[in-house]
Amino acid sequence: QVQLVESGGGLVQAGGSLRLSCAASGRISSYAMGWFRQAPGKEREFVCSSYGSRYYGDSVKGRFTISRDNAKNTVYLQMNSLKPEDTAVYYCAARKGGVRLDDRYDYWGQGTQVTVSS
Q1: What percent of the chain has pLDDT over 70?
Q2: Mind listing the pLDDT tens digit for each residue in 6-42?
Q3: Strand runs labelled E in the chain
């Protein structure tokens, strides 16, 4: 069982940056780690994931970067050039067995709100 806790969300102006963190209760070295987001009235959307290679959704490529510190059991999401359409609740997720670009992950955090004002 892995518990995930996100932090770092908040309100930022368009063009600004935020860094989200996801702290895991256990070792994450054998897990694919992903970030997803869900805006009001929309389905949950894949943002990025990491397990060896990194994968990004089209809407965030070139602006967002996922990184992980396995020694600290923490995953980060650096978000640059933020847009109002990035406004959503951001969720961290963990999965055994490799990256998936859908939401079939085993463990989820509670989410952290990111709001980008225009």
Answers
A1: 100
A2: 999 999 999 999 999 999 999 999 999 999 999 999 9
A3: 4-7, 10-13, 18-24, 31-38, 45-51, 53-56, 64-69, 74-79, 88-96, 107-108, 112-117
